[in-house]
Amino acid sequence: MTMKIKYILLCVIFSPIVLLSQEKLNELKAPSSPASGLLGLQPSAVLAPKSYQALETAIYSNFMTNSGPVIPNDFALEFTPYWIKNHGLTLQEYLYPTRKLDQVIRNSSFSIASTQNFLLGDSTASNALAFGYRTTFYFGNKTDRLRIDSLIKVKIIPHKIFSSIKTKVNYLLLQKPNPIVKSKAEFLDSIKSTVYDELHKYYCEDQTIKLWNDIVAASYTLPMINDSNNKDFAEQFLDIIDKNTNGDLIFNEFKSYIKKREGLSVDIAYANILNFPTSDFGLCFVPRQSVWITPTYQFNKNLDFLTVMGVLRYEWYNLNYYNKYFPVLNNYKENMDFGLAASAQFNKFSFQFEVVGRYSYSEIRAGTDSNGYELFRKENRSDLQYIGSFNYNLTDQIVLTYSIGNRFEPLLNPDHTLVSSLAINFGFGAPTKNELNFK
Amino acid sequence: MRKTYYYENLTYNVDDETDVNFTIKFISDGNSGYSTINTPGPTNPEIENEGTVFIGKGKDLKNQQINCVSSFDNPIPEEDEICIEYWINDQLIQRHKNLKSEEERPVIDLTITFE
């Protein structure tokens, strides 16, 4: 770790300003694992079973003990049924499904999370389970299609060159019992026309000559051919071919692009919590449910650093439950959040700005009329949150974040709406969707 | 350096008058690549991604070796293995499987002797 990073870490750890307690900011976007997100868990590991047997084992081994069923602590599981099986999808079919419904099925994931430390209003720890569902629709556009088609055409070229040259290399070096060529010079002389012809199918004359010269120059570092190392020599020579035709580079570019495709995608997620305020399994409540609809537009080409995201989050609260177990809180029955966020990334820096409006609504019992019918009064409130965040990647795993802005009125300290927090994320948090190993 | 998976000493019994077709089938999702089949004739049949090619009459292949070199990759994040089958006519010759954590861009090298 460099001195600079150590210094920043020390500043953050010992600074009294940054340690002022603030309630956790509610993430604007739908959580990668809706169940964990709604419970507020940051589990140390998310189980991602890759078969139905593994799913059964994961559930049985965590929820069953010798003394009977339990709700495990700090448990998170994400299950994506579609990717359990092989379907032999081609890359084109994967990227552009024939039926739109296929996208929903492929991206559907189910999550379960649980904790034994769900704190009630009087700080009593209780058991809680959460269930979630998430899927994503991607709406491809013409630019994306052209980019994908172009990348696929480019990506196949190194494969064509490689397979063709390797068949010739095999013929020259791996013939049994006696290979055709006996020395490196003889090999280069024999392979030249094949390499040249293959390269010239895709590169102009000058480029082909330059590539061949580079390949020959790199081949000088290869060991001399002898009877025992023909296979190693062949693989090292083919590695030079692969490097000179940018096989790895093109593959990685393709891989990066399909994780961040240009166009509109919409995440839809739902989660609910099941709380057992006493140890009695018969007494359970569904205190809270949430639905997220998050449309995201990823720009590309000159604006590929920019992502624009909208959010619609709808939450229901069970007021009977909250009045009983969180009597101090003034919760509303329904909350609707709607907003917009833009984020930009430049190498190690990233910025995000979000504006979210909240509309809260409740019907509160106000007694009974003369006929004994219950009366209700309506109560609603609007609020606005705007927060800017600045992130700096100290390393691949450590991110320094500073956020400033105005948050929704917190339930505990309604006047404390100023957000000014400095935080370090060590990469132990809940995984992102791309980090989850679904298969 | 890319990992090469060698499958040597594979055999296939063929009748003289049988048309021999070579097939590559993708089993896992999101594979792509190119294969060249070195046959005794003047040209080498090729397969882009998956498919079937005619590689010759039984009598032309008998007592000969063919060499199939496949260069594949798998870029999709949801898939964690690469699984591909090689068939001659209706017979499975070899099923290849490797974890992507081991190699995302495998080279598969099959040598098949016709008997």
Number of helices of chain B: 1
Assign a percent range to the helix content of chain A. Answer: 25-40%
Judged by helices, strands and strand pairing, the structural class of chain B is mainly beta
Kindly state the percentage of residues in helix of chain B: under 10%
Spans where pLDDT lies below 50 across 5 or more residues of chain A: 8-25, 429-439
- Rg calc of chain B: 14 Å
Mean pLDDT of chain A: 82
Q: How many domain units of chain B?
A: 1
Report the principal-axis shape of chain B. Answer: elongated
Distance between the termini of chain A: 34 Å
Order of strands side by side in the largest beta sheet of chain B? 1-9-6-3-4
Total number of strands of chain A: 13
User: N-to-C SSE series of chain B?
Assistant: EEEEEHEEEE
How many runs of DSSP E, i.e. beta strands of chain B? 9
For the CA atoms, what is the radius of gyration of chain A? 29 Å
Whole-Å distance between the termini of chain B?
35 Å
Give a verbal description of the structure.
The complex is a heterodimer of chains A (439) and B (115). With 439 residues, chain A is of the alpha+beta class. Chain A folds into 2 domains: 3-141 and 262-425, no CATH class; 146-253, no CATH class. Helix content of chain A is 32%, strand content 32%. The longest helix of chain A has 32 residues, at 142-173. The relative contact order of chain A is 0.13. The model of chain B has no long low-confidence stretch (mean pLDDT 94). In chain B, the strands form 2 sheets. Chain B has a 5-stranded mixed β-sheet, with no helix packed on it. Chain B is mainly β and 115 residues long. Chain B has one domain. Chain B is 3% helix and 59% strand. Chain B has 1 helix and 9 strands. In chain B, a hairpin with a 7-residue loop joins strand 3 and strand 4.
